[in-house]
């Protein structure tokens, strides 16, 4: 059986040219010195150069200078029969820019084993390279995102731990004073009002109520600081005097615990542009913290000095008490972090004092640093606040002139909680004022016409007509223009105070109201001018 032989209408040379002319990849043949002897027409499309211009040139001529050593190494490996015979590098386009090129090569030998040249195919992989680089960038971004997610997860776990620890501490810190208050009330019901037991119970009630108020104030301050809602009332204040006053307030507590307290003031007066109440709070928090962790017989020092180099005022509180673990130092200024956490919680607190210090100091443009050599080796907490270049003499401008009204006044209380209204009226009557109370806003507006008070203390969260609406109605009536309006509320954020002022109140007081503070306010009310310090 004969096999039919096919005949072709073209020669092998014509077939070769047909293939090379229509190749998408670029192909060239070199001599044994790697000079290009033949290049396919696809070079013109791929590299923007004519074959006539590329023939007779070295295969290395158009390689990017940074990639040249790599390409030369790959060629040497091919000559030795090593490597994969593939290289990826940048090749210069006829327009001057570079494209990414994937080259595959094959060394040609004669029948004597001598190199006669090489054949290379080249493919433009610029778009593929862009995709790879894009994917690589995305992989890097993903890796960074994963690391951030891991870090955030750790922070969330730590935050959740801190939250649980805080809630446990809060429960403990609230239940203790509440238990003391409850038992003191029970005691007062069973003993004579002038007995020693009654005096003891009253003292406990006062201390524990102040402790509860401090806890609530700390919680509110942490919230305000975190939301950037603390508004500083800056004025020029003398720092030495401010610190001395704060220290005087704390001396009885140090004396009671038998911890010595020393103050080393700056030799010269030092003026800051600051909120005096907030700086006093900072010093108080530092003293409270130092006292809490310093045992009987030890000492606390308060040092005030001027740093001439940094132009800052520095207040440093040093103690030789419990100290702080080295690993806890970076965390100690964060909210709800405490140096000591144990079941007995002998030191108490919610771990917010130093966080509040940091927030207030940073609002003044300053900073806080904490140092300790470890447990049992005491600690030093330093605050640094910028000193203004010049002290403006505006004390007179910042100090309102107020005429005190020491005579008894007529006061109306608008409060829907009967117990609060009753005790507030009783206290005001003890101060010598004539007092009446109503339980809602509408009734209050009717009673105003009959009672004609000098001062109205009005709750905000009233049923029906809110305290804001009561204030607006009073201010809308010219007959009541001289009344001094005081808002009483458990809502004590800055926006609550601003809203109260806009509604027409002269002053906003947060519950519970301190009687001494209220007495000071009432003593400074001038019914005809409604001015207050």
Short description:
This protein is an alpha/beta fold and 533 residues long.
Q: What is the general shape? A: elongated
pLDDT below 50 for ≥5 consecutive residues: which ranges?
339-350, 392-405, 527-533
Beta content comes to 15-25%
Characterize the main sheet: 5 strands, antiparallel
Helical residues, percent: 40-55%
The average pLDDT score comes to: 81
Please give the count of helices: 15
Task: Say how many strands there are.
Answer: 17
How are the strands of the biggest sheet laid out side by side? 2-1-5-4-3
Quaternary assembly: single chain
Class by SSE composition: alpha/beta
Structural description of this entry:
By secondary structure, the protein is an alpha/beta fold. It is built from 15 helices and 17 strands. The strands form 4 sheets. The chain has a 5-stranded antiparallel β-sheet, sandwiched between helices. Strands 7-9-10-12-11 form a 5-stranded mixed β-sheet, covered by helices on one side. Strand 4 and strand 5 (115-124) form a beta hairpin. Helix 5 (126-190) packs antiparallel against helix 6 (196-226), helix 6 (196-226) packs across helix 9 (353-363) and helix 12 (441-451) packs parallel to helix 13 (467-476). The longest helix has 65 residues, at 126-190. The protein is elongated. 24% of the residues are buried. Residues 339-350, 392-405 and 527-533 have low confidence and may be disordered.
């Amino acid at each position: 059986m004969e096999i039919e032989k096919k005949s072709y209408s073209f020669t092998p040379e014509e077939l070769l040219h047909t293939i090379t002319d229509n190749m998408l990849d670029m192909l060239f043949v070199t001599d044994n010195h790697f000079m290009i002897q033949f290049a396919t027409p696809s070079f013109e499309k791929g590299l923007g150069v004519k074959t006539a211009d590329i023939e007779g040139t070295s295969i290395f001529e158009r390689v990017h200078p940074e990639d040249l050593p790599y390409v030369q190494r790959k060629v040497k490996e091919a000559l030795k029969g090593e490597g994969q015979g593939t290289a990826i590098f940048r090749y210069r386009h006829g327009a001057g820019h570079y494209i990414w090129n994937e080259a595959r090569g094959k060394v040609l030998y004669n029948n004597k084993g001598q190199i006669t040249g090489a054949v290379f195919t080249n493919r433009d992989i610029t778009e593929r390279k862009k995709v790879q680089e894009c994917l690589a960038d995305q992989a890097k971004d993903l890796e960074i995102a994963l690391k951030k997610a891991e870090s955030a997860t750790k922070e969330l776990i730590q935050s959740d731990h801190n939250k649980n620890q805080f809630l446990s501490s809060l429960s403990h810190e609230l239940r203790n004073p509440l238990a003391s208050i409850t038992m003191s009330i029970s005691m007062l019901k069973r003993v004579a009002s002038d007995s020693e037991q009654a005096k003891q119970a009253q003292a406990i009630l006062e201390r524990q109520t102040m402790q509860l108020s401090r806890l609530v104030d700390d919680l509110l301050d942490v919230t305000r600081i975190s939301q950037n809602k603390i508004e500083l009332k800056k004025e020029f204040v003398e720092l030495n005097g401010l610190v001395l006053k704060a220290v005087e307030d704390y001396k009885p507590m140090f004396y009671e615990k038998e911890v010595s307290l020393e103050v080393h003031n700056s030799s010269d007066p030092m003026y800051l542009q600051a909120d005096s109440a907030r700086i006093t709070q900072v010093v108080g928090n530092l003293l409270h913290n130092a006292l809490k962790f310093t045992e009987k017989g030890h000492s606390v020092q308060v040092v005030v000095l001027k740093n001439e180099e940094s132009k800052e005022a520095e207040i440093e509180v040093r103690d030789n008490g419990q100290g702080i673990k080295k690993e806890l130092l970076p965390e100690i200024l964060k909210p709800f972090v405490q140096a000591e956490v144990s079941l007995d919680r002998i030191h108490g607190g919610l771990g917010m004092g130093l966080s509040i210090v940091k927030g207030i100091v940073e609002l003044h443009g300053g900073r806080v640093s904490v140092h300790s050599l470890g447990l049992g080796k005491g600690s030093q907490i330093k605050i640094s606040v910028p000193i203004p270049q010049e002290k403006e003499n505006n004390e007179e401008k910042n100090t309102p002139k107020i005429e005190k009204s020491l005579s008894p006044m007529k006061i109306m209380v608008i409060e829907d909680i009967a117990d609060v209204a009753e005790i507030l009226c009783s206290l005001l009557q003890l101060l010598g004022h004539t007092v009446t109370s109503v339980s809602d806003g509408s009734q209050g507006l009717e009673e105003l016409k009959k009672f004609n008070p000098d001062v109205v203390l009005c709750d905000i969260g009233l049923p029906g007509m809110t305290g804001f609406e009561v204030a607006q109605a009073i201010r809308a009536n010219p007959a009541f223009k001289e009344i001094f309006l005081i808002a009483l509320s458990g809502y004590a954020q800055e926006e609550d105070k601003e809203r109260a002022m806009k509604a027409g109140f002269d002053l906003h007081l947060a519950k519970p109201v301190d009687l001494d503070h209220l007495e000071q306010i009432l003593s400074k009310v001038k019914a005809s001018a409604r001015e207050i310090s």
